[in-house]
């Protein structure tokens, strides 16, 4: 029974880490990264469609994203969606493709971005700690109901704490890597 609680904790912690990674991909670091466009949704023939499903996105050089729509008629819709998205990048369209030139990031902006990354990391750690609390509460309920012994409870609480510590270290590593990427010139 307690193994289910720990397995559930591990699964939910992994999900928290993957959500953090997705969020960090949307933080612009001055380098062209197709993940910047992951959250952009285009009104494609009346239905909201993710940009990556209706175009090919490539990186011809470190500061440029090239969007090649599968349907050339959708180019103005794509351009409109990019402008609405508040990316802070103006698309230039030559009728066949859209180019997004990623501006260089100032030192001041880099510091702001690292603060944003730190906040995302902290939010993720809070989520993991909440998962730990939920798992501990569930284990204590099981012990009270006589489903597990006091010794098993102690061992399982220790396992939950080790999982939490490992997850928090992983989150710190993920955030440190993103901060390093942002601070690179």
Structure, described:
- Helices cover 59% and strands 15% of the residues.
- It contains five helices and six strands, in the order H-E-E-H-E-E-H-E-E-H-H.
- A hairpin with a 4-residue loop joins strand 5 and strand 6.
- The N and C termini lie far apart (51 Å).
- The model has no long low-confidence stretch (mean pLDDT 88).
Notable traits:
two-stranded antiparallel ribbon; alpha+beta; 185 residues; elongated
Write the layout of secondary structure elements.
Layout: H1 2-25, E1 41-44, E2 47-50, H2 51-54, E3 55-61, E4 64-69, H3 75-84, E5 91-93, E6 98-101, H4 107-144, H5 150-183
Antiparallel strand pairs: 1-2, 3-4, 4-6, 5-6
Helix pairs in contact: 1-4, 1-5, 4-5
In brief:
This protein is of the alpha+beta class and 185 residues long.
Beta-strand content bin:
15-25%
Strand neighbour order, sheet with most strands: 3-4-6-5
Order of helices and strands: HEEHEEHEEHH
What is the residue-mean pLDDT, rounded to a whole number?
88
**Shape call:** elongated
Report on the biggest sheet: 4 strands, antiparallel
Regions with pLDDT < 50 over 5+ consecutive residues? none
Number of strands: 6
Helix content: 55-70%
Radius of gyration, Cα only, in angstroms?
22 Å
Instruction: Quickly count the helices.
Output: 5
N-to-C terminal Cα separation, in Å?
A: 51 Å
From the helix content, strand content and strand pairing, which structural class follows? alpha+beta
């Amino acid at each position: 029974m307690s193994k289910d609680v720990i397995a559930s904790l591990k699964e939910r912690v992994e999900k928290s880490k993957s959500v953090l990674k997705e969020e960090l991909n949307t933080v612009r670091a001055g380098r062209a990264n197709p993940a910047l466009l992951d959250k952009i949704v285009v009104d494609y023939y009346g239905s909201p469609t993710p940009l990556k499903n209706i175009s090919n996105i490539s990186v011809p050089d470190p500061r440029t994203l090239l969007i090649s729509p599968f349907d050339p008629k959708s180019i103005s819709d794509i351009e409109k969606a990019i402008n609405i998205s508040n990316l802070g990048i103006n698309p230039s369209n030559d009728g066949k493709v859209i180019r997004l030139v990623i501006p260089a990031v100032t030192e001041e902006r880099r510091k702001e971005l690292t603060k944003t990354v730190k906040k995302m990391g902290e939010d993720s750690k809070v989520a993991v700690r909440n998962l730990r609390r939920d798992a501990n509460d569930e284990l204590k309920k099981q012990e009270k109901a006589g489903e597990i012994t006091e010794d098993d409870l102690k061992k399982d609480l220790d396992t939950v704490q080790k999982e939490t510590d490992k997850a928090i270290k992983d989150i710190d590593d993920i955030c440190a890597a993103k901060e390093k990427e942002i601070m690179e010139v």
